Amino acid sequence: MKNTAAQTTTKTLTDLYRALDHANAVTITYLAPGDTEPTVRTVEIHEVRTTKNGGIVIVAMCRLRGDERQFAVSGIQAYTVHRMAYVLDRPAPTKYVRPTPAPATDAQALFFYELARDQDDADYTPRTLVQNEAALAA
After folding, report:
1. Distance between CA atoms of residues 17 and 119, nearest Å
2. Prediction pTM value
């Protein structure tokens, strides 16, 4: 286990990149922002990113939860690079589909546009209430 406080960020990133290149699992002791207790996770690193504010994060599949997570390198307190290979499949990236613009002039077109956005209500048709139906009483 390597303690990140005893080495430079460059050395930590070098080891994490090497694990990424060789597809080796890494066990990290991670302190999330706002938490008081660190967590230990075994992850499979897929990407190293730089955030807009200049921080460095690793994008990895968490073996405990089985989903993709982001871990800030500054939050990693210790890590161990293993020789075991990746076992989790990374989910396929989803493609953003830009929605059609809402109609601005016709109120009825806007109404049907809003109904079509929610697939559960897309088949909504108003029904007429019959006064003698007991099931409809409040």
Report:
1. 43
2. 0.63
